[in-house]
Amino acid sequence: MTVRRILTAVVFIVFAAKASAEDIQTIESLLRGDGTDVVLAGAAKVEITPDVENTEVWLAGYGNNRKAERVADPTWIRTFVIDVNDVRVSMSVIDCVGYGYDEVRAIRTEVMEKLNLSHVTICSTHTHSGPDTIGIWGPTFGLVPYRSGFDEGYRSFVREKAVESITKAVENLQPATIRAWQKKTGAEGFVRDSRRPHVIDDAMSVLSVTNPESNATIATIVNWSNHPETLPGESKLLSSDYPHFLREAIETGLSRTNPERYPNSTAEDFDGVGGVCLYFTGSVGGLMTPLDIPVTDPVTGTVIRENNYDKTRVLGQNLAEFAFRMMRDEEPQYVTPQLIVRTKQIVVPVTNTTFIIAARLGFLRREGGDPTKMTTEVGLIRIGEVSFMNIPGEIYPEIVIGGVENPEGADFPHEPEESPSLKELCPGRILMVNGLANDEIGYLIPHSEWDETAPNLYGANGSPYGEENSVGPEAGRTIYHSMAELFGASEGRPEEPADNGGEDF
Ligand SMILES: [Zn+2]
Fold this sequence. Notes:
Layout: E1 25-29, E2 39-47, E3 59-60, E4 70-71, E5 76-84, E6 87-94, H1 101-111, E7 119-124, E8 130-131, E9 140-141, E10 144-145, H2 152-171, E11 174-175, E12 177-184, E13 192-193, E14 203-210, E15 217-224, E16 237-238, H3 242-252, E17 253-254, E18 270-271, E19 276-281, E20 288-289, E21 295-296, E22 303-304, H4 309-329, E23 333-334, E24 339-349, H5 353-360, E25 373-383, E26 386-390, E27 394-395, H6 397-401, H7 422-425, E28 430-434, E29 443-444, H8 474-488
Parallel strand pairs: 4-16, 6-7, 15-19, 26-28, 27-29
Antiparallel strand pairs: 1-24, 2-5, 2-11, 3-8, 5-6, 9-10, 12-14, 12-23, 13-20, 14-15, 17-18, 21-22, 24-25, 25-26
Helix pairs in contact: 1-2, 3-4
Bound molecules: zinc ion.
């Protein structure tokens, strides 16, 4: 039994009296429930494919010196905007390896006042076949990088297109109804964890935003956790990776069957839902990867082990099929679009010398000028029963769903600190992780799993992969505690979902 609380719409910015929460910024728009509520949503997609013919485009995510040779599929910035009783929030996602806080703030300055936005979030899909938008994947002489991989021309182009995408989404605002689903995909055929402890957050969440008058789809938001790296480090193809095929299928449909040629096919065809599909990447640290896993093409029964563009297509389409089946077969949760956004700016200590050198060389440009500190932001966006945790990097799933360990060989022997898990603490019924939200500060590793010095974790010879792509051992627990603080700030706010007959998840 749930209780619907009817609250007067309020819009305010709070600097809470509680000392620990003094820097938390809160924006709220609660439903009045008296028939005068206005809920609008809009979406847009703008292409940002770089010109690989006439400019040098350095692919980011694996090693350096990967000059793009050919475009396999386009890259985009896609935006969803929701407006509840004139409180307007936008969420964008860019096909790139990561997008820094300085860039996000520059875009906020351009759009917030002009478009009457209360909050702007910009995430990255983390594709490993997209252009360098951080700066550390440029060309090298031997091992020494001599130029940033983030081209200035492309930097301003992406800013311009981000503004265009958000503007178009605002122009597209129309009455909206929101339904949500969540279901675990399982790991087999989808994802593996390359580092112990083996913890995978395999929940796929789907939000369908439709116009209640025309029934037309405005946006479909898909959230799932895996590295978009079906293509290997040697690949020179520019691609959004599997999110491309997933989004394309959701928008335009899946037509993979041919009963005469493939009588044993287990694939099904689905009509596209139209609108704009946005794919948000979740908790991918640890490391979640499709590399080397067998992915089965349900049409032919072919098992693809190689890391190639066939795997990109089949994984994306299999995920779309999973989403289509979920929307068709499972009872949706109807979302009461009460809007609450909480954000907090935080400082994360940087001890990783590679990051410090990259900053000193100017490849990693951050405001403030002190390369031993990174100013970043955590956030929580609640649309009624749905919560998006904005996490500015690649979080290890055990911090999100539980299972942090303190194995023998860890550098800091103490009880797991990031517990209870973020999903246990987060308010709401459908909990989604916006990984690489408003920043990319690298891996967020549980403090008690940090391992740079011998002896090593679980008796291994040598330290595991991960620490070299983290700013330092404090990053994981700093983000965890900051998120927990945001959730704690929800006390006294409406936690009870509306009584709408939806299913529990
Ligand atoms: Zn990564």
